[in-house]
Write a structure and sequence with these properties.
Blueprint lengths: L1 H4 L4 H9 L3 E5 L2 E5 L2 H19 L6 H10 L6 H5 L4 E3 L2 E3 L4 H12 L2 E5 L6 H14 L5 E6 L15 H19 L4 H8 L2 E5 L11 E5 L7 H8 L7 E6 L13 H8 L6 E5 L9 H33 L7
Parallel strand pairs: 5-9, 5-10, 6-7, 6-8, 8-9
Antiparallel strand pairs: 1-2, 3-4
Helix pairs in contact: 2-4, 6-7, 7-8, 10-11
Length: 325
């Protein structure tokens, strides 16, 4: 009962908040009161929690919330939350939402996968976990991690230091994820041997990448030409995962994002999968999910007005001059 109700009844408080049925606990018995539909849902949630606990996996309050949110989907919550991807240093990496499971399954089933969604949805982290898993299982010989070197208007040449010093700020998030999954002492050795390679996107031109797991992060900051260049680097025995957030484009001068355009260009192409993640898949601090949702709501309200204003200004610029001469 402690495992189900949580320390100091923390999980029970979540269940009472998220479920419509009333929950009464007495000793080792749980009594549910409410409409048949509400009672049936509450019972199914408790069964899922018991199933997860029986695997030996612990629960958190966030896990309990996710179980309730996933009820009614085609996949049982217990299947999602107990799917192990990688274990490292006593920590097991698993998908935490249904869309994350679909994303992970798509990486297994397809050669090229696009993970598109807001910050904190695990796009890069889960792709990195699958890459390390593939390397450990000897399905690939190396991991290649790349990002476009475009951030908030800065350019590599303006940064001090050597080339590696210039690159480091752009690839730091990839290093951070890597250190979570590979023993810290092994990372320098793997980098030196070329088993793991981290480089800006510009360094991919002219290469053919065989037997590799290739991750392109922050792909919303690629141009159409860069995206085509990257995708055509694919070699035999390789997988590609492209991640990005199309709401955070830092390209200068209104340049089109390659990630936005590629969804239309490759729609329906065999062995290519597009996985959409939303603010419901945010697994950072719960406030991050609320922030993302607030921005989405703001953008949906403001963007039509902004686009209409642009069109009106454009029409005025191209209108014939009707002033008297």
């Amino acid at each position: 009962m402690v495992s189900i109700l949580g320390p100091r009844d923390e999980f029970l408080a979540v269940l009472e908040r998220e479920l419509e049925a009333d929950i009464h606990v007495r000793g080792n018995e749980v009594r549910l009161v409410g409409s048949p539909v509400d009672v049936a849902k509450a019972a199914d949630v408790l069964i899922e929690l018991v199933t997860i606990i029986r695997t030996g996996q612990g629960l958190t309050a966030a896990d309990v919330e996710r179980v309730v949110q996933m009820m009614g989907a085609e996949t049982r919550p217990a299947e999602v939350l107990t799917q192990n991807i990688l274990s490292s240093r006593g920590k097991t990496i698993r998908p935490k939402t249904l869309n994350q499971k679909r994303y992970v399954d798509a990486i297994d089933a397809h050669t090229v996968v696009f993970g598109i969604g807001p910050a904190g949805t695990g796009k890069t982290y889960l792709a990195m976990a699958k890459a390390v898993q593939a390397l450990q299982d000897k399905r690939v010989n190396r991991i290649i991690l790349t990002r476009p070197a475009i951030e908030a208007g800065e350019k590599l040449g303006f940064l001090p230091g050597t080339l590696n010093d210039k690159i480091d700020p752009y690839v730091r998030p990839l290093y951070d994820a890597l250190h979570d999954m590979v023993d810290a002492d092994s990372v320098p050795r793997l980098l030196t041997a070329g088993t793991i390679e981290v480089a800006p996107l510009a360094y991919m031109r002219g290469r053919t990448l065989n037997d590799a797991f290739i991750i392109l992060d922050e792909a919303q900051n690629t141009s159409m030409e860069q995206m085509k260049m990257f995708l055509t680097r694919l070699g035999f025995g390789s997988k590609m995962v492209v991640t990005g957030d199309i709401t955070q484009v830092d390209l200068p001068g209104g340049q089109k994002s390659g990630l936005r355009e590629v969804q239309e260009i490759l729609d329906g192409v065999e062995d290519v999968a597009f996985c959409q993640l939303t603010n419901h898949d945010v697994v950072r601090h719960r406030l991050v999910g609320r922030i993302v949702a607030a921005y989405d709501q703001y953008e949906s309200a403001v963007r039509p007005d902004r686009e209409r204003g642009r069109r009106e200004r454009r029409d005025e610029d191209h209108a014939p001059d009707r002033r008297p001469r």
